[in-house]
Write a structure and sequence with these properties.
alpha+beta; 2 domains; four-stranded antiparallel beta sheet; 5 helices; 4 strands
Amino acid sequence: MEASVRQAYEDEIRALEEEIRLLTEKYEDIRQESTFFSDEEVLKSMYAFFHLKLFQEETKGHESPSDLKAQLESLETDLSFLTAFTGFQFTSHSKKTVEKTGNRTVQKHRLSGKCHSLAFQLEFQLLEMQNNEKVSAVVSDLSIVMESREDSDVSKFVSSTEERGDLLTFFRSLSTYAQWYEHRRRTFLHFK
């Protein structure tokens, strides 16, 4: 009986170690994509990852499901905070490596989501070049689809953003615009 309990624990430990390995790989992928996020978001993600690593080292060999559940709830709380703070809720993301050489990587990204009540879709290519320990990234072939393109100012903004390939300006401006768009929508509903 004791051997079967021990085997069950060992199986659980192996499953958790595999999950940790997969999460670490996912983190590495996300870290490569960090050029899309603000410094604050990157720092918050790094804090969560290092907190998770520290937690794993402290509890190595005697992790309990309740500890893992508490950690998951903490990460979900952080994600909810970021969603509420920025208004962005990403619904899908896909990444495909188009070309990879020694110090050059080209990836095609598709991203969709909502900012407050405005839906958007992005498609772009990201060229990353690494020189020594410095990585530079260039966005090209940016295509933006938004539901509120009937507004001529938004159309002009989207067109100029697509030409420049400036994702940071797009996300910052979309956040502000979507917030005011939501206020206008609620105001007009109030008067109907």
